[in-house]
Amino acid sequence: MPFKALGLHPLILQAIQETGYTEPTPIQAAAIPEIIQGRDIIGIAQTGTGKTAAFTLPLLHRLHSAAPTRRQATRTLVLAPTRELVVQIEENVRAYAKHVPIEITKVFGGVSERPQIQALRFGAEMVIATPGRLLDLMSQRCADFSALEHLVLDEADRMLDMGFLPAIRRVVNALPKKRQTLLFSATLSKEIESLTHEFQSNPKIVQIGRRSNPADTVTQLAYEVPRHLKTSLLCHLLKDPAMNMVLVFTRTKHGADRVARKLESVGIKTGTLHANRSQNQRLRALGDFRTGAIRVLIATDIAARGIDVDGISHVVNLDFPPQVEDYVHRIGRTGRANAIGDAVSFICQDDHGSLRSLERFIGRGIVRKKAEGFDYSAPEPPMSLEEQRRGRGPEQGGRRSQGPRRDGGGGGDRRNSRSGGRGR
Ligand code: AMP
Any residues with Cβ below 6 Å from ligand 1, and which? Predict the structure, then answer.
């Protein structure tokens, strides 16, 4: 089905075309016509399904097609759990609204209130906000939502997890009762259901399952890199803020710890998930990853089995997976539609054969890339005392050709994953 069939305004269709989207994703095809009609929607969809466009495109259509009741009134409010998501939604809306200019304002904590207050007072047709800061500004009487027409609760499940329910209630109580309310969530839990009873009227559920074969939808890249520069290359790539929720795979648990220490030493918040960590430590690492308290989670294949975290922006195979099935499992953690470089594999000299087998297995080629601005000729860094004691693992220095020691030097994970330890 082409976008044209969904009933969107031609100026919005033009922007979609310029963005490079050729056809709607399933959630877009299902939700856009309903939202254009003015219905309340419960969208059950993960990040990566195109859900942002699924609500922003039809709302822009509605804003553009009907004149405001009052000039400069806020007509649409989007509530989202994190600053990152607010920024991401705003970037999307700006692209889609290229030809239908509307005033958009972002509101989130951790920065000065003043510019946000000024923007709200000036009047913005669309406000995209985190609930806490918005409530602060509303209690200072800086926002006027008396003419509001549309409310969106994006990633409602995450907002509940983060304890935003009281703030959301207070915000919603200050909005007109007659409005269109859209709620998006990765799951339809009891809590979400009661939220929809409280805030929506006769909503239609639009549910889209996970993509079945991530290998078809995830953009896959391979960076050729000398073995000793893998961690440096990771630090280099992480300069890109788009890599905001990154799952990194290493072959061994000590490799995971070593990379984590390096990232932390350059100020990148990092956690690890491997067999040497207690259940509590693992749960904490996962929780921190989910909430964004850490940006990078480094895991071994076994430890990462069965973890289900929404919103992972990138998977990095710092060590090439031992088996093709592991590769498919790993990259299945991300599924963003057409984002560039979702799954990134670092390829050393002796990985080329494995890469070619993988390409045959998944039936498509993987683009080889060189990282711009990265110094590929940097010398091998000196071994730290600890590395000298342990022997540097193959994923780092590679000075010990026989690989890591078996007496706790990382062989455990490696052995397991090679011998098909699936299901443990
Ligand atoms: P979201 O689920 O909203 O986080 O979207 C994930 C990614 O998919 C974003 O990078 C969007 O730019 C992209 N995207 C959204 N809709 C489409 C589409 N119809 N075709 C291609 N890419 C899309």
Answer: 21, 24-25, 28, 47-53, 336-339
